[in-house]
Amino acid sequence: MPRMSMVEAIRDAMDVMMARDETVVVFGEDVGYFGGVFRCTYGLQQKYGTTRCFDAPVSESGIVGTAVGMAAYGLRPCVEIQFADYVYPAYDQIVSEAARLRYRSNGEFTCPLVVRMPTGGGIFGGQTHSQSPEALFTHVSGLKTVVPSNPYDAKGLLIAAIEDPDPVIFLEPKRLYNGPFDGHHDRPITPWSQHEASDVPAGHFALPLGKASVVRAGTAVTVLAYGTMVHVAQAAAAETGIDAEIIDLRTLIPLDLDTLAASVAKTGRCVIVHEATLTSGFGAELAALVQETCFFHLEAPIARVAGWDTPYPHAQEWDYFPGPARVGRALAETVEA
Amino acid sequence: MADIMPLALHVPEPAVRPGGVPDFSSVKIPKAGAVPRPEVDIGSEAIRDLAFSIIRVLNRNGEAVGPWSGLLTDDDLRDGLRHMLTLRTFDARMLLSQRQGKTSFYMQHLGEEAISCAFQKALSPGDMNFPTYRQAGLLIASGYPLAAMICQIYSNIRDPLKGRQLPVLYSSKPHGFFTVSGNLATQYVQAVGWAMASAIRNDTKIAAAWIGDGSTAESDFHAALVFASTYKAPVVLNIVNNQWAISTFQGIARGGAGTFAARGLGFGIPALRVDGNDYLAVHAVAQWAIERARRNLGPTLVEYVTYRVGAHSTSDDPSAYRPKTESDAWPLGDPIIRLKNHLILQGAWSEERHKQAEAEILETVIAAQKEAESFGTLHSGEKPSAREMFEGVYAEMPPHLLRQRQRAGV
């Protein structure tokens, strides 16, 4: 199997879908000729021409708004917002339009649209290149929200997202674009090529949306994580020696509650980890669901490790980012509780 | 230089408020037939003047004059008159229905009937409108069943939208009528995307975007113009300037620009202003803009100059912010009366036939209303199933919605 970084896997997913389905179009700021500021669309314009992959004006509501119209026509647009931090001007189009076209028109008009956006911190991105706005999308009826954590999943999930008949918010942890990151910012980075998840099948393969993956089996505590935090949680388990069962949610909506509940029923404990700010973050929904579903199995309070309720700072990056030490402490406290 | 004075904020005010004498002297009305009709492949700069004038066909006597006239037969015009009369009658009946409690809400088109009715006539099957809540003439002129419209307004068991949408936010793909959203201006940029898609697929269909004067202040209006201009999308960008955005006069949205049409010029989009109460002029300009789009010459911006005679909606009372008689003073008159007079002058219509037509149309609308009411109104009869509430959020119902539907016990 070819080995791919996350950037290459994402590009390959679009390449595969553009070759398979001539209604797939890709556009966004700097996405065309230049191939994207993260190189995720590199070569696509050359291969498929300027009417299939093109540069857009700097207007997020314009990008998503035109994409909604294209989807209503019958295309499958896969558009890029350069940073998730800049999706807010498109929020009206996403919430009021893309998410509701099917419902409000009783299925006359649908919106098979993918909005890709780099998300997450850990790169000294400061306030506007680090945010994790997933809770703003999981709260919206009609949207699906996906966050991959490795190249294999990224390709399989992006292909599934493009093929999905409903709008999908596809959040790509940019910290993971070129290699896994476990939060140890002081250690040298290893590229994806040394990680087994960089074995990515060539050609078409799709992973179902709404299915979590157990990335580490364990018995002491269940860790619910997604994106970069999957790797941080793995490091925390290894460093504390706690036999944690780590679940990579992969899709936030629809959520694989069965896998989550089965794990918590087994371990009796649950730690939820995300980069996004704590209050009203997706972790709150997860905690509520685990509490409702697994109340009689729980042997300790559900813990949440998240970004602090502050804008994402620059100099204080590693005090903000929920690294393996903080996650490890939460694991220990939950297991001992 | 004089001393610098303290700054003062400029807040535009309409010329007249309730109790005052209506004054439209600031609306410059050129003579019918005075504005030239350029070739469709002309550039925006060459027709700059057209963004500041008003294209008119019907003159004071009811004659069709000038280069924009002569496109429609008497049969076409009688058709157009019937569409406008139907829309006006429909509005009156639905307004009454709302007052009778058969529905929660309605929005009428009084005075603006020519715009959507005449525009629809210039489109071809397969073209797609992206309307606001005040273009039901597009549906009526395309033959959409009145009873289905009323079922939507009543949210009854035959409501095509299953009771999920507010009244008048219709949807009909087969009639080229994109699902109306309550969020203003969103559809303007979607129309551009739809048109881009048609061009990407080398199709021959074009899109029509619709917006009101007030909503041009929304950011999606600007996004739509830049995307339409950049990609030369086959779209007609319509602005219905009815002078009012609820209680706010058009000067609040205009930002001191000469006209709304002039907004197009900065984007290199050919821009025209047209008498929105002149069925013939609306149709002629629509046809010109549609032909430009169809020939891949790019977008056109059209401002329809009209007046919102009725209240904004059934929840609004205009006497609180404008003179009661302001609509009588509107210099472009009434679109139905103007077309009627023209047809009579042509010898193609008469007062008697008009009365007869009005009676027939009223009968048709009442029959549609009865049909719709046999399926219930908002507060009487069967409602769309509560199960429908959970359907169509996604193509396939995800587990969490299945659980919620179960909990709701429906």
How does this structure look, described?
The complex is a heterodimer of chains A (337) and B (410). Helix content of chain A is 35%, strand content 17%. With 337 residues, chain A is α/β, with parallel strands linked by helices. Chain A folds into two domains: 3-199, Thiamin diphosphate (ThDP)-binding fold, Pyr/PP domains (Rossmann fold), CATH 3.40.50.970; 213-336, 3-Layer(aba) Sandwich (Rossmann fold). Chain A has a seven-stranded mixed sheet with strand order 2-1-3-4-6-5-10, sandwiched between helices. In chain A, strand 11, helix 10 and strand 12 (303-307) form a beta-alpha-beta unit. In chain A, helix 1 (6-20) packs parallel to helix 7, helix 3 (60-73) packs parallel to helix 4 (91-98) and helix 9 (257-267) packs across helix 10. Chain B is an alpha/beta fold and 410 residues long. Chain B has a single domain (45-245, 255-308, 331-379), classed as Thiamin diphosphate (ThDP)-binding fold, Pyr/PP domains (Rossmann fold, 3-Layer(aba) Sandwich). Chain B is 36% helix and 8% strand. Chain B has helices spanning 74-99, 113-122, 136-141, 146-154, 186-200, 219-230, 251-254, 279-294, 326-329, 335-346, 351-373, 399-408, and strands spanning 128-130, 207-212, 235-241, 244-245, 248-249, 271-275, 300-305. In chain B, the strands form two sheets. A five-stranded parallel sheet of chain B has the order 1-2-3-7-6, sandwiched between helices. Chain B has a two-stranded antiparallel sheet with strand order 4-5. In chain B, helix 8 links the parallel strand 6 (271-275) and strand 7. The longest helix of chain B has 26 residues, at 74-99. The N and C termini of chain B lie far apart (77 Å). Classes of the chains: A alpha/beta (337), B alpha/beta (410).
In total, the number of strands of chain B is 7
Mean of residue pLDDT of chain A? 97
Q: Percent of residues of chain B in helical segments?
A: 25-40%
The gyration radius over C-alpha positions of chain B equals 22 Å
Low-confidence stretches of chain B: none
What is the element string of chain B, with H for helices and E for strands?
Answer: HHEHHHEHEEEHEHEHHHH
CATH architecture of the largest domain in chain A: 3-Layer(aba) Sandwich
Derived from helix and strand composition plus strand pairing, the structural class of chain B reads: alpha/beta
Largest sheet of chain A: 7 strands, mixed
- β-strand amount of chain A: 15-25%
SS field, number of helical segments of chain A: 12
**What order do the SSEs of chain A take from the amino end to the carboxyl end, as H and E?**
HEHEHEHHEHEHEEEHEEHEHEHH
Alpha-carbon distance between the two ends of chain A: 45 Å
Q: Given the structure, what is the number of helices of chain B? A: 12
The parts of chain A where pLDDT drops under 50 for at least 5 residues are: none
Looking at the structure, the CATH topology of the largest domain in chain A is Rossmann fold
Largest interface: pair, residues per side: A-B, 48 and 46 residues
**Structural class of the secondary elements of chain A?**
alpha/beta
- Strands of the biggest beta sheet of chain B: in what spatial order? 1-2-3-7-6
Task: Kindly provide the name of the CATH class of chain B.
Answer: Alpha Beta
GO molecular function (chain B): branched-chain 2-oxo acid dehydrogenase activity
Domain Dehydrogenase E1 component (chain B): 82-377
Domain 2-oxoisovalerate dehydrogenase E1 alpha subunit N-terminal (chain B): 6-42
Catalytic activity (chain B): N(6)-[(R)-lipoyl]-L-lysyl-[protein] + 3-methyl-2-oxobutanoate + H(+) = N(6)-[(R)-S(8)-2-methylpropanoyldihydrolipoyl]-L-lysyl-[protein] + CO2
